[in-house]
Structures are given as structure tokens and as C-alpha cells.
Amino acid sequence: MKDHGRNKHSMKRVDDNQLFQAVRLQTWFRDGKERYWVVDESRQAEGMQATHQLIRDVGEQSSDDVSEEEQASNQEGDAEDQIIRDIEQWKEAAQERRLTLLAKPAADELDPWLRYTGWNEVLQESQVDIIQTYKYAREPEEKETKLQRLLRAWDRILERCLDTLANMDHKDVLKWWASPKNEVASQHPFELHQSVQSVHKCSAVWQRFICYMMRTATVDWEDDTETGVEFTHAQWQSIQQIHTHLQTEPNNEDDQDPLLTAELMRLCMLVVMQDTSKIGLYESPLMHYLAVRGIDPLTKSLYPPLAYTPILGRVLWITRLLMLEIAVPLEPWPELRLQSKEDIESIPERIHKLRRTHLCEGSFSPTSSILSQLAMGKKYNQLHESPANIHWSRDEQTIYYLGMGVELEKVREMCHDLIGLLQRLLYNLAFDSELPMVDLSQIVDSMAWNTKFRQSEYSFINHVKNRERTDVGYQYLLKRARKGSKEWQLLQRAGDGSYKWNDSQKQAYLNQERQFLRKLMVTLHVTGGQPARGPEIGSIKVSNSVYSARNIYVINGQMCFLTMYDKARKRRGNTDYIVRFLPNEVSQVLAQYLIYIRPFGRALDQRESEYLFGDNRGPWAGEELTQALSKATSKGLGVRLTVQSWRHVAIGIAVRHLLRASKTWEKDDEEDEGEFAEGDDEEELEQNTFRHIMVRQSGHGQRVAQAHYAVDGAFLHRLGPELITAYEQASVAWHELLGLAQAEGKGKHGRQASQQLTPVGIKRERRESKHGVKAKALDGLRRIYGPQAQPRSEGQAAALQLVHQPPVTSIIVLPTSSGKSVLFFSVAAMAVDQTVIVVVPFTALVEDIVARGQAAGLHCKEWSYSNHYSSQELVQLLVVSADQAVSGQFLHKAKGYELNGQLAHMFFDECHVAFTDTSYRERLRELWKLRYLKCPFTALTATLMVELDDVLRDRLLIEDAVLLRWSTARPTIRYQVQDSKEEAASAVGLRLLERLLYLPDGKRGVVYVRSYATGDLISSALECSFYKARADDKGETLQKWAQGSGGWIVATGALGTGINIPGIIYVVHIDRPYGLTSFAQQSGRGGREGEG
Asked: Which positions fall inside the Helicase C-terminal domain (predicted)?
């Protein structure tokens, strides 16, 4: 249409309203048979006006009948309403303005990092706020099939790039390629990351960049983009060509899309090879995208460098990988005129030409800009810590990581249980008989790396002095296998007297061996000292390989394992050997397995790998360890810990109970001028042996350990218990000087002293009136609704009594509109210096509860990532959405309330979502984490079928919860079902709605639909709003309908839970509801004020 306007009517650079006229279209057809006609809205408006006039003539009171006093009162009320509306409009506008960045904010608004990046200047050019801008860089949604197809083309490009990298065996080329300097090569070659997951993360960042370009590019190159990103004409043409390819089906049956893949590679070339010498920093699409990725959608703010530099690092790796493919591809790109490596005349000349122009600092390229920001970000990173994530109990016997309590005694019990389980599994694998003990004190071993000990397949088992004790081979268990046992019959005897394997028994035996190895993996990880990372454990080799030495040794009668992995090993180029010794019982189990079981197991499935933990696919990485560790900690500790969370917990325990106990000294802190990376503290004082070993076992440096692992939330920034003690000692010396020395025995040390700075825990008050719990419940109700308030039903009265004398866990089932919110409102009203937490499933419900709580006079707030208020501030009622309630940040904050005696009660409203909505809201699967908080826990719902009671208890870990179930029947609701038979459900529904269309003033109706298409059709026919979960203006849509004079609204199931809006007299479902629970919730929106 724009092309027609320009070519035929000379209408260039005109506004859309001069080219187009907005009209309302209507159709009754679908499925490719659409025929539209224009609706004459003027006639419709006249008809509606006449209808409304008729209603007023019949039903409205004449103004002559209203007294002067009533008119004055109404005018005064209208004036107050207008004031409220003005304030609310200002608040909404202020919220929108907050998300729109200023080009030049106040000087104190920007920290040095944001002044350096200048993000505010580029992001303020976007036509939408920062959250909407960020959404342009989101991953493809399910309906964005063309983008998904395009990303499959990117996967093919990435695969070719990785093949080229793998085939580049000339280290000099890769050293030059990794160097940001034009003059010197790097000492470390450009290569693959140490883990496959890192490659996937790098690819994911580039995938989102591709999506960003495709979503933002305009149809006309001269038009401004929504976000302000700019493209060169060649880049824009390539994007348009990609759109053209996506409009056609791929020609190849194997869906390789060669033309699409080549065009996407061309676009990537145009981006990474762009000359930025004559443009601004963010006029490069890649740099503009990186500015957008600086937006933190959770906090609705901008990322600090600590969170942003990993994104830069991943994009830098991808740009180098793409440039290597451009420079020396393994296979040619004829469409792009790129020769293969074999056809290039001079590889060094091409390498140096391209890297000087596109990859080095000062090369006027996107990569040069990335290098500059990365260097500055790393510099700022040295000045910042990670957020606090641990608390300690007062007796220092329980550490809380992100709200999850880990008791030291349970850790000890878990270790004993793991060892006992290993011994039982070992007994079973030995065909239900004991294995000979291994006298480790007599085992000879050496870490020497000479010819004798460097032989492939060599281990301590093969040492000449150990062979009589250790070199038994697979024959030892093969003899037992021939005899069999009660459980195992691995061999079957044939008629000719020969033996053959029983395949099912053989597989069962190997499965049990893998179970043993998973438990052994966890045991080594937990008992070996400060925990390694997942790849470290997976790298343990029993014997030498062709490439490297083994990792298991026997030293001084103890088994130990040695690892060489740490996070910065490849970048620094040197190797730190980390040794972890095993307890005696674990040493014995490992030695017996290696000597007796492993040789037989290897012969059984003919595996040739030297790795202790692995299979035919290779060594086990972090995923296997995380799964095994999660199961073990869930059973033994009552909390599910991953490899990362256990590292924090173990480091916190070591700092608290081991490092403090050691008599060591530390050198004064010296400013580190190097890059920020774990393991960089090369000059740590070696005399501080104990601390040095504890830190080294954790695979990082001392500075990183203090700044980023197990950061104690009980103290202010960098003010730990050791420093508190030092301050205390200085104060005592001053007191002694003034003759004010404290009495002997009054001094405190470590955390004891620091506890004097924290609020004293306030015990949960259980104020009992003379009439007992019933009077207390009534008191709480009347504090909310006035001195004459009474429970509206017997069910509500029983529930009030239960929550005011709560058991540890409880489930309350009351019908919709029965006033379940009164329960937590009344408990909050009675709380003294304590907080009640309410977890709800939907944002709209959060806002509704906060508004009603504040209207009831409670100090009530919403918790969100972007609304962190001080932990010292106490509110009576804290409302949080379910997605955020399971986050580490919230659980850490709530655990702080609990430990200070400030957490009175936790309610989970509409708890049925714990099993109804988990299929599409993954965070709801983690709701069991709420049970880490030790306070009364009450789950509320109106729709819990008896058959699903056990499911809810299992999902929330409340197996022993007290159940209060009241009849959920609603006598004010009548139900009617119409079978659409062969006709479309929407057509039948529209005929029904024609009879119900005109509602009395102040009354409302809801139409529930299952698809957006049906919703658009119905809302268009009714001329009403359509409320849908993914709409950006859904909150405004709901508020406008709820606060208006009545009428219809069309909605998806997102409006079906917990929303309390009076005046709803009709609830219509088009098509079958998703389930009985959803239907009960949705139909329960009606008749909430007793309407029939």
C-alpha cells in the first residue's frame, strides 16, 4: 500500500493516517472462507443511544425526585471520585515514565558504569519503554514458526563453524585469532569452551540477536524502527531477502534450506564486518542489541557489569568463531564467494588482514567496541560483591542458603548414610558376599611422572609391589558369577555344558553398578573437602590415558583424587593441581570397587574408558552430579541442593567452622590489577597453608571466595564476624584506657559479638483473650471490618479459628466468594511486630489483595524483584506472586524474617495451581520450596477435589496438613449447558449472548474462551474488551471493566482465579472448559455479592 501511494499518488514520507482510514470489519466465516464487510458504527451508535434512552425513561429516577441534600452529597462524592481518578492516573503515568529512560538524567542517577556505556542515551530513542524494547530480543515463541525455522539455519551455520575450528590444527593461527592486540599473538589459542553448555549459552545469545534484527527491521529502509536500531542498506536488504525465503517452503526434503542458510550467513558477515569508523557506537545493530541486553527484565532496571560481562564474553566468542569461518572455512560458501581453506593462497596473509580490520582493539568494528566494554566491565567487577545469600542460626549449627536450611548434624548423618548405602551396594555387586579388605597402608603408589608410571592403562593396581594384593582382574567375580547367588544368575548353562550370559540379569547388574557409581560420585564430592565443580568430578580417571595421567592415588594409606580443572585454567594457561583426601571408610569402598568390581563390570559391557564416572558416551558432566546430589540432599537434608548451591553451603560451613578455628595469618590486601576471574589470586600467602588449601579446593581465589561465595546476609557490606571482633577488641582496649574495661567473661567473639548488632528475635506472640481462640479470631475480623463484624458463614468461622491457632500445616477448602481473604487479613491485623506472607498465583490477584488490604487499614505491600525494601522494614501483610516466591532472593529475605522471629504465618491462596498450572508455568513446580520457612503454613482454595488431595500434599510437602473442608456448593448460581453438536460453539454462544446482551446498570458478564481467535470474534461482536494473559495492557483492561458501570468482557482462563469483582450475573463458557477445577473457579466469579 505504501509503495502504491508513493508510485501512483506521489505521497512520500506521509503519516499513516493520510494513507489509511481505520474501519471496523466483521465476518461470520473462517478457515480460509473469510468474507468481510464494513460496519456502519454511526447507525449502531444511534441504536445504542436510543436503547439507553429507553432504559433511562423506564428505570431511572427523575432528577426532580432527588432532594437538594442528596444532590449536594452526590456532587461531593463525584468530586472525591475525580480526585482519586486523577491520582491513580498520575501514578500509572509515573510508572510508565519510569520505564522510559531520559537522555540526560540527573548526575547522581548514573553510576560510573552507566555513564561509560551510555545506555540511557540509546535506549531513550526507542518508541516504547525498556521492557517492551527488551521483548524484541526474546526467544521465539511457539507461534513464531518462521523464526524457529531461521534459527535452525543458524544451527547449521554454527555446526559448520565448529567443524572449521576443530579442523584448524595450526596453533599459531588460533593464537593470533584469540589476541585482541594487533602487535602480539595470545599465549592461549582460540578454542572450544571447556563445557558443551558454554557453547550452547553463546549460541543462545546470538540466536536472540537474530530474532532482534528480524523483529525490528522495517518494511521500508527509510522508516524508523520501533527500538531505534539502525541497519545499513545492505543489512536491510539481506533481512528482506531472508523474509522472502521464509515465505516459501524449503526445496530440500531434508529441510536444509541452503539458500536461507547462506543468506543468514551473509547477514552475520555484514554485521560482524561492519565498518564503524563513521558512525556512532550504537549505530551498529550488534552494539544496539547489546545495549538492549543490558536491560534486566526482572528488576525493570539496567544490569550491573557483574551480570552483563558474561553476555559480552559470549558474543565475543561467537564473533571470533564467525570470523574464523569467514576467513578459512572448511567448506566453501559459493553463494558468498568464500573459498575453502584448501583454496586460499596465503592463510597467514588472510588471517592477519581480517583480524586487523575486524577483531583487534581499535579496529573500528563491533568486536573492538565489545572488547572495550568487556575490559571496563571487568575493571568494575573487581569493586563489587555478589548479593548476600546465606544466614546462620544463632547456635551456628544451621546454615540457610537462599532460605534453605542445612543442619550440620544432618550433613554428618547424610554422609554416614551414603557410606552405608555404598557398602550394601558393594556387597550386592559382589554376589551377596563380603569382599576382602584392602590394607591401604601396604599399597605402594607414586605421583612421579617418569616412564615407568606414565604407561597407558597404568594405575596403582598395576604397581609391581601391589600385584599380589590388587591385580585380581575380572576372573575374581567371574568365578562367583558361575556359582550365582540368590539375586544374581548372570550365567546360564547350555546343554553342551557351556555358559552364556543372561541378558536381562546382565543389564540389571550393570544398572546397579551405575547406581553405585552415582552414589559414589556424590560421596566423593561431599566428603573429599571443599567441593569441586561437576566437570572436575567427571574428569577423574582410574588409569593413565594416551593423553593424560590418572587422577586416583593412594598416599599414606588413604585414597585421594587429584583434579586439574578450574574456571580460568584455559585463559591463564597454567595448571593448579588440587588434591582431596577421602575418609577411611570411603577409601576402603573405592579401593574394593576398583580392585574387584570395576574389572568385572568393564568386561561385562566391554567399556574401554579410563574414566571412573562415565559410560560409552563419555565422562559424566555436571548434570549427572546435580541429579544425584539433588536426590541425596533431598533425602538426607530435607532440601534439594545442586552442585552450585552445595558449593555455597560447603564454603559457608568452612568459613564459619574451619577457617576461623585455624591459627593462620593473612597478608594485607593488595590491589589486583589483573582481570576478574576465579583463580587469579596467584600470590596468596603460602604460609597461610590451611586457608590457602581450603580456598584452592573450592577452585577459586581468596578474593573471589570472600566476594562471591556464601556471602553472609547477617552483616553489612564486607563487615563479617572477624572484622566485628577486631572492632570489639579495639573498643575494649579503649575502654581499658578509660578505666571502663568490661567484666571478665563478658566479651564475645565471632558471630556472638556480631549478633549484638542484629535485631533481637521477637518470639511469636500468641495473645489469648479470656474467651480463647474464638474471641481472638473475632477480634481479628473486627479489626478489619468494624466492631459489629461477624463471620459470614459457619465455614468461615471455623477457618478463622483454625488460622488463629494454627497447626504446622493446614489446608482450607471454602467455596468461591466465601471470604477466604479474611483469613490472612485478620491474622495480619493481630500480628505484633511480625509479617504475614501471602503467596498468590497471578499478578492481577496480587494487585487486588494489596488494594483490598490497604483499604482495610493494613500496612500491606507487594514484594517483587524491582521493589526491594529494607529487611528492617516490617509490614503486616507481604503479598508475592508464586513465580517470585520460589526465587532465591525472596526465600533469602523471608528466611531473615523467620530467624529474627518476625514471620508470623504464610498463606498460599488459590493453591490448586500447584497441580493445574504447572504444565506451562515451570516455576510452580518449585512451590515445595515454601516449606523451607519454619512458620505456620496454610493452603487456601475453593476447588480441591477429594481425589487430588494427596497430589496437593505431595506437591507442597504438607503430607500431615490438617484439612478443613466445607461444602463448595453455591446456591446463588444456576447452571445451563447447551450442546452445539455439529455447529461451531462460537456460533451457538453468540446466539445466546444476543439474548443476554443488555445488562442492568452496574451488572457485568464474563465470556470465557479457549482460543485467542474465538475471543477476538466474540469481543468484536459484543464490542467489549478482551482480557488475555499475554496482553501488555491486561491490567488496564481489567481495571477499566471492574471500575466501569458494567457490561461484558471476554477473557481467557487467566481471569478465572481469585478475582473479586461484584455485579457479575452471567458467566458464559464458549466451548468446553479445560477442566472441572478451572470451570469451578471461572463460574465462581459470578454471584459474589449474592446476585442471583
From this structure: 991-1092
Cβ-proximal residues to 54 (8 Å cutoff; 6+ apart), any chain: none
Q: Per DSSP, which regions of 806-955 are E strands?
A: 809-813, 835-840, 860-863, 877-881, 903-908, 937-941
Calculate Rg over the CA atoms of the chain.
35
What is the Cα–Cα distance from 552 to 940, expressed in whole angstroms? Answer: 54
Q: Given this model, what pLDDT does residue 40 score?
A: 59
Residue with cell 572477624: 722
Say if residues 120 and 114 touch (Cβ distance below 8 Å): yes
Q: What is d(CA 978, CA 989) in angstroms, rounded to the nearest whole number?
A: 9
Could you tell me which of 1028, 1081, 1030 has the C-alpha nearest to residue 912? 1081
Alpha carbon separation from 28 to 31, 162, 740, 984 (Å, rounded): 11, 53, 92, 11
Give the 3-state secondary structure of residue 422: helix
CA count, 13 A, side-chain hemisphere, 790:
4
Distance, in Å, from the CA atom of 711 to the CA atom of 402, rounded to the nearest integer, reads 11
218: left (phi over 0), alpha (psi -120 to 50) or beta: beta
**Could you tell me where the DSSP H helices lie in 382-444?**
408-429
* Torsion, CA 224, CA 228, CA 234, CA 235, rounded to 10: -130
Measure the CA–CA gap between 104 and 106, rounded to whole angstroms.
Answer: 7
The CA distance from 1023 to 934, in Å, is 50
Q: How far apart are CA 129 and CA 122, in angstroms?
A: 12
Give domain 772-965's CATH architecture: 3-Layer(aba) Sandwich (3.40)
CA–centroid distance for 273 within its chain: 34
> Where is 784: in which H helix or E strand?
helix 772-785
Dist CA 1041 CA 817 (whole Å): 19
Supply the pLDDT for residue 751. Answer: 37
Contact 1051, 1027 (CB under 8 A): yes
3-state secondary structure of 547: coil
Residue 74 CA from chain centroid, whole number: 51
Cα distances (angstroms) measured from residue 685 to each of 655, 662, 865: 17, 15, 40
What one-character DSSP code corresponds to residue 659? I
Q: Where in the chain is the domain with CATH 3.40.50.300?
A: 772-965, 985-1084
The phi and psi torsions of 92 (rounded to 5 degrees) equal -65, -45
pLDDT per 10-residue tile (average), the chain, 1092 residues: 59 61 60 54 50 43 50 61 76 65 60 86 88 92 91 95 90 90 88 81 96 94 92 96 89 73 96 94 95 89 90 96 95 93 90 92 94 91 77 91 91 91 95 93 78 76 86 90 85 81 90 94 88 78 85 85 63 63 90 95 86 82 85 92 90 78 40 40 47 66 65 52 50 46 42 32 36 74 86 89 93 85 92 90 85 90 71 79 90 87 91 80 85 92 88 90 84 80 86 84 88 89 84 79 84 72 86 77 69 54
The span from the CA of 1059 to the CA of 847, in Å, is 10
| Alpha helices (runs of H) in 681-771, residue ranges in sequence order | 689-697, 702-708, 721-737, 750-754
The distance from CA 568 to its chain's CA centroid, rounded to whole angstroms, is 25
Look at strands 25-26 and 37-38 and give their pairing: antiparallel
pLDDT of residue 606: 85
663 grid coordinates: 591459627
* Report field, pTM of the whole predicted structure over 0.85: no
Enter the DSSP assignment of 247: H
DSSP 154-202: HHHHHHHHHHHHHH---HHHHHHHH---SSS--SS-----SSHHHHHHH
User: 524: exposed, middle or buried (C-beta count within 10 Å: 0-12, 13-18, 19+)?
Assistant: buried
